[in-house]
Amino acid sequence: MDAEIIAVGSELLTPARIDTNSLYLTGKLNALGVEVVAKTIVGDDRDRLREAVRLAAGRSQIVILTGGLGPTEDDVTRDAVAAALGRQQQLRPEIVAWIEQRFARMKRKMAEINQRQAFVIEGAEVLPNDRGTAPGQWIECEPAPRVVMLLPGPPRELEPMFESLCVPRLERLLPPQVIRTLHFRAAGITESDLDQLIAPVYTKYSNPVTTILAAPGDIQIFLRARCASQAEAEALNAEVGPQIAALLGDRIYSRNGDPLEAVVGNLLRERGATLSVAESATGGMLAARITSIPGSSDYFSGGFLVYNDRMKHELLGVDAKLLEKYTAVSEPVAEAMAVGARRATGSTYALSITGVAGPGGGTEAAPVGTVFIGLAGPTDCHVHRSRFIGDRERVRALAAQTALNLLRKKLAGG
Amino acid sequence: MDAEIIAVGSELLTPARIDTNSLYLTGKLNALGVEVVAKTIVGDDRDRLREAVRLAAGRSQIVILTGGLGPTEDDVTRDAVAAALGRQQQLRPEIVAWIEQRFARMKRKMAEINQRQAFVIEGAEVLPNDRGTAPGQWIECEPAPRVVMLLPGPPRELEPMFESLCVPRLERLLPPQVIRTLHFRAAGITESDLDQLIAPVYTKYSNPVTTILAAPGDIQIFLRARCASQAEAEALNAEVGPQIAALLGDRIYSRNGDPLEAVVGNLLRERGATLSVAESATGGMLAARITSIPGSSDYFSGGFLVYNDRMKHELLGVDAKLLEKYTAVSEPVAEAMAVGARRATGSTYALSITGVAGPGGGTEAAPVGTVFIGLAGPTDCHVHRSRFIGDRERVRALAAQTALNLLRKKLAGG
Prior knowledge:
Two copies of one chain form a homodimer. In chain A, a hairpin with an 8-residue loop joins β6 and β7. Chain A has three domains: 2-173, Molybdenum Cofactor Biosythetic Enzyme, Chain A (3-Layer(aba) Sandwich), CATH 3.40.980.10; 178-254, Alpha-Beta Plaits (2-Layer Sandwich), CATH 3.30.70.2860; 260-413, Alpha-Beta Complex (Maf protein), CATH 3.90.950. Chain A is of the alpha/beta class. The radius of gyration of chain A is 26 Å and the shape is globular. Chain A is built from 13 helices and 17 strands. At the A-B interface, α1, β2, α2, β10 and α9 of A face α1, β2, α2, α6 and β10 of B.
């Protein structure tokens, strides 16, 4: 079965914005054995959108629209789809009531225009939205099987709606086929090195299909086996997965798709250990990732954001002479920061990060991108020096990722 | 004038790949006063691509195709465009010779299939490719002005070709037209309330066009005026912009698109003031945003991540009796955290955040989503209580945004 995705919104036609929903949806559809054959991005323009829907619905069995379900004049998706399918819309009082309740919970009154979001296309099933005021719509059309979906634009609304309401409906619609996915994540290796290492294995197999998705310092590897039965799909993955895992060794940090901060959190919890941080260059990014995991208060003690020399000295007890002699971006200061954070919080481990994120501030001894990461534990403290290439955000992201990965290796090895 | 971009290639329909060429092209076209009204991604499929070209060329004056100009069976762009426009193709011996020379320079022999790249659509101008074997094509159509461009997919081939060969041709084709944009950002108001407030103004004008883009706690408003001259475009924006700004009042925090953390940073710098933070629920997210701005060390002193009661007491001096009596998520503790951070760092201002981000941890007095934000300054300390709706990441993001906005108002007002 073929699918097309239509993203709606003039902001998606500007030079800086990309449509990330379609990437998420493509992954989910592929996992169901559905191929995406075209993607379209249309601005907030009723006529163009109507034409796009008519073309897509005329040739593909699954058409997914994202965005344009808001309450304003700009939000044209409902009208355009109704026009393309030649159907009417009805105001559903129960949806109005639901939106009103949502506003009431926030101690606010629903604005008149939010009524627009309660219009439903004839024959559509309403997909409730737990996280926003725009309900989705699921519309089955002739000749069956054929479906048009209207989903909200914000990923945090779209993703749970698609997962919990659309995937089960699609599974009923689709021919029986089982897909089993292995999801590895790796750190401490570049995408091209990783590809060179594992390509000799995965190119031998057309099933499972291997996909590699790289972000700074973090690579995800998906093996997707499509078979008539679960046993066959699992057998294929069991043949290929271990070969890839063996080549990557301890660079693989997750075999179930968990992010690095969750893996590190689990390792700390299992060992009854706690962690504190002392961040300079990353200014809170490392701790923000650690605390993004629910329950992280079990093992995260706290930390220090020490953005200048005085704070490093006063809050962490870094010797002023050390700062003067070596500067803040140095191995001895990284070590003193980690040791100081551990002492002040009483945590089992402490991570410190000091570096030059740029664009300014580089020196000959520590050019932009230089980062020292300290890891203090019960018996020792090690400092790791890196030189990251990229802009400020990339350097900071890589520093946080590298710090987490150092702790993971320490915990897994010890 | 309107443009559409069609990216060709099945690899662009996988979960991990994005079409970056269209972002580059959109930037260049906008600079010429051309708006991109739709983008399409089609796989290597002759029929679907022919339909897409026919639709685009039927309604937009500029159609740009990227990719699909290679030598293999998969490379369908030439054939699909020729079919859509109802034109023939001719083999051009001089292009064959040119491709052969290119191979010869690399000490290789041209493969037979590369001849395909020497086919040119009737009436097209050939755009030489300095960096690859696929020449581009520039095809003017009726009714003039109307043009279809075929460009190679690799950015390093496409970008110089577009810049040096297409931009000058487009400039000759285009009516003199200038685009000027106003970019406001607002906080402390929901999208629907904002829209209700300003729609009476912006709906009166078709030029400038108003676009609203909402993220949690942060709304962007773009006014884009398209005119024959810069003076006219600026005059239109100067007519509409202030009306919208007046309605929104101090909810507008930026008139040039700067994010809130940059605006707060500038206010602090102008006043020679410094800031520290004490974060519990947000665990570093607030500081990570503040320090994402280059030069933030001028005003960011540092901070404390106090993720449990002991740290709140030991690092910030929050009275243990206060914690026991009111719990950590309370107004007195938020106040004590802000005052403690300010005292420990000697900063002019301090922001504290304590709350229940969820999903667990809610109580009757402080259900999930409850957040207290403290703001301590030289003369006073205020605490703001919020109840945010949403998941853990949303509650944390809204808490950080609200804290920054409280400080902005304090600085702007004081």
